[in-house]
Amino acid sequence: MTSPRVEIDLGKIQANARCLVRRLGTRGLSVTGVTKAVCGHPDIAAAMVDGGVADLADARIKNIVRMRMEGIRCPISIIRAPMLSEMEDVVRCCGSSYNTEMDTILKLGTTAKKQGTSHDVILMVEMGDMREGILPENLNDCVTGVIATPGVALRGLAANFACMGDLAPTAGGMAMLSRLADQVEGDCGPVVDLVSGGGSANLPWALGEVSIGRVNNLRLGEAILLGTDPVTGHPITGLHTDAFALFAEVIEASRKPSPLPTRSIAPELGMLKLVRNDDLRVRTILAVGQQDTDAGGLTFPSGMAFIGATSDHTVVDTAKSAVPVGSEMKMGMNYSALMRAMSAPDVAKVVHSKQKMNGSAKDHETHPFLTLV
User: Fold this and answer.
1) SS3 letters for 297-308?
2) What are the pLDDT digits (tens) for 66-91?
3) What is the spatial distance between Cα 350 and Cα 348, in angstroms, rounded to a whole number?
4) What is the 8-class DSSP label of residue 248?
5) d(CA 9, CA 274)
6) Rg, C-alpha atoms of the chain
7) How far apart are CA 64 and CA 36, in angstroms?
8) Are 199 and 167 in contact (CB under 8 A)?
């Protein structure tokens, strides 16, 4: 089989989505499935939808176009603020987008009017992550601007946590987001239907004992795909953590001293200290590197340890056991490693547990999105 490759278990992704939808549903929270780490892979998107997510979201319009072309017909949002250069595709493919800039919102409205439709706007609020977001003191002015813009409609508010930084959301921060929603409606009327509180990092808060307030949605990618908490990296109880695996072929397995002598060649060569055979470790080299994945985010089989990686080699300490050249090593991936492997053109993607998806997820009939190619 082709190597390197990512093997994908759709059944486990669907099960993770179903579990999270059920658990969060009891708390009054809907789930948006985020597909950006898998480049909008249509089979993975369909598995999320079949697991019960309310809608999908991605950061790149080309990923959304890909899903539409493959028959994904459920609502999809673009969660990175749209670029002015991609407005036609954004309005055509996405029912809503997450925004912070009035110039962008005005362009969305103009484009939507030309296409004879309306586009929903979700305003991102800065809650301390220091990536994108409107400062709370400027929120009402922005809401007023959206309401006054033809072609768009305000759908709600959203916030990010633990994206730029590793700061997990607190009960106080989430309560503040609820208060902002109340403040907007007090000043501008009942215009906040969606309050999206964040992503997978919000799960400990969402599944805890505190009130969720006005928050009624989470945008989940890592939790569904990998079953892990983005802040701690720990597995989430009840979820599969092995829906993805990276396979790479062994191209060298040699016993080498550790550390390798660093003296230069003759005449000093004769002065090098000999290393006893007992100290020799097997260094196994895999035909995969930083160009293919985040090698530092890989998990290796028990008893093996990551030594280092270059653009196209990954070196693993396999202790004193040689791994045959031509064999394959199976590795787990964290979110960064998964994202890079899924976007790497030289890494094959092999889907398992592929099944016929229901009509809400995939529909292979011709539809208007075919005009985008």
Assistant:
1) HEECCCCCEEEE
2) 999 999 999 999 999 999 999 999 99
3) 6
4) E
5) 48
6) 24
7) 9
8) no
What phi and psi values does residue 99 have, to the nearest 5 degrees?
A: -140, 160
For residue 145, how many other CB atoms are within 10 A of its CB? Answer: 16
Report cis status (omega within 30 of 0) of the bond before 267.
yes
- What is the C-alpha separation between 168 and 232, in angstroms, rounded? 9
- With H, G, I as helix, E, B as strand and everything else as coil, classify residue 125: strand
Q: Phi then psi for 242, rounded to 5 degrees?
A: -125, 35
List CB contacts of 42: < 8 A, sequence separation 6 or more.
66, 67, 70, 71, 72, 362
Q: Cα–Cα distance between 36 and 28 in angstroms, integer? A: 25
> What is residue 34's three-state secondary structure?
strand
* Rounded distance between C-alpha atoms, residue 353 and residue 81, angstroms: 34
3-state secondary structure of 251: strand
Q: How much is the pLDDT for 163?
A: 75
Closest to 338 in 3D by CA, of 216, 218, 241, 265: 241
Which is nearest to 121 in space by CA: 151, 141, 160?
A: 151
Taking the chain, what is the end-to-end CA distance rounded to the nearest angstrom? 31
Rounded to two decimals, what is the model's pTM?
A: 0.90
Task: Find all residues with CB under 8 Å of 140, minimum gap 6, and list them.
Answer: 183, 184, 187, 188
Where do we find the tokens 């945008």? 219
244-258 per-position pLDDT tens digit: 999 999 999 998 876
Q: What's 151's DSSP letter? A: T
**Residues in contact with 245: Cβ distance below 8 Å, sequence separation at least 6, in sequence order:** 6, 7, 330, 331, 332, 333
All residues at 6 or more sequence positions from 246 whose CB lies less than 8 Å from its CB, including other chains: 4, 5, 6, 288, 293, 298, 330, 331, 332, 333, 337, 341, 347
Structural domains in the chain, sorted by start? 9-233 (3.20.20.10), 244-333 (no CATH)
Three-class HEC string of 157-177: EEECCCCCCCCCCCHHHHHHH
Cβ atoms 244, 225 nearer than 8 A: yes
**Going by C-beta distance under 8 Å and a sequence separation of 6 or more, which residues neighbour residue 171?**
205, 208, 210
pLDDT at 231 over 80: yes
Cα separation of 69 and 3, whole Å? 27
